Amino acid sequence: MGRTSKRMKEAYKLHDEEKQYDLDEAVELLQKCPQVKFDQTLEISMKLGVDPKKADQLVRGTVSLPNGTGKKIRVLVIAKGEKVQEALDAGADYAGDDEFFKKIQGGWLDFDAVIATPDMMREIGKLARILGPRGLMPTPKAGTVTTDITKAVSEIKAGKIEYKVDKNAVINNGVGKLSFSKEKLLENIRELISAIVKAKPSASKGTYVQTISLASTMGPGFKINLREVATN
């Protein structure tokens, strides 16, 4: 069994495994934990009362965080003709078609989001085995298959994120950097929770949001008191 570092021992002094925290208190305590050499991401984990194996209980969508993620998002746009220049003008990091298909097939994955025009989806389908498992496959539902390239690039760069329930009925997302003010982090957290609650499938029965926890990249996880969060 590995040894607990001095930093983590100090962090756990602020943490009670048996307690359920209000959002405000959890964020404040995570910001008080001993720091590391990089700006950690604040992450939220939500366990939902759905069966992801059933198509009518999948929970997936997008939300624009009011204060962004604090992360520089590298955007690749797969398009042809004038759409390539439109993408670059909008702030895309990379834009093109054939050259990027070959690079991705060769193992290149130096991007965080992929946007594509509808006419490119047949070719992109050939990359599904590479992009799909990494959550990088463009989809119309996420707004990443579109002819409005300028809008799609701008939204992602400004903090639009995608959430998706995994096979264990859990949604995990980063909601900002610990260096953000507490108020900005709380705004982001509440915006994401609200979006996920609104995305509740009609086929979901019983308690929809079962647990919520907050953690930093290198910090302990804090269980959130659901009575303080609008989850229905």
Give the overall average pLDDT: 90
Classify the fold: give the CATH topology of the largest domain.
Answer: Ribulose 1,5 Bisphosphate Carboxylase/Oxygenase
CATH class call of the largest domain: Alpha Beta
Using the 3D structure, state the CATH architecture of the largest domain.
Answer: 2-Layer Sandwich
Question: What is the overall number of helices?
Answer: 8
How many domains comprise the coordinates?
A: 2
What's the helix-strand series?
A: HHEEEHEHEHHHEEHEE
Q: Note the gap between the termini.
A: 41 Å
CATH superfamily of the largest domain: Ribosomal protein L1/L10, rRNA-binding domain
Protein model, in words:
The protein has 232 residues and is α/β, with parallel strands linked by helices. The protein folds into 2 domains: 18-68 and 161-228, Ribosomal protein L1/L10, rRNA-binding domain (Ribulose 1,5 Bisphosphate Carboxylase/Oxygenase, 2-Layer Sandwich), CATH 3.30.190.20; 75-158, 3-Layer(aba) Sandwich (Rossmann fold), CATH 3.40.50. It has 8 helices and 9 strands. It has helices at 6-12, 23-32, 82-90, 98-105, 121-124, 128-131, 149-158, 182-198; strands at residues 41-48, 60-64, 75-78, 94-96, 113-116, 160-164, 170-177, 209-216, 221-223. The strands form 3 sheets. The protein has a 4-stranded antiparallel β-sheet with strand order 7-1-8-9, with helices on one face. A 3-stranded parallel β-sheet has the order 4-3-5, with helices on both faces. It is globular. The termini are far apart.
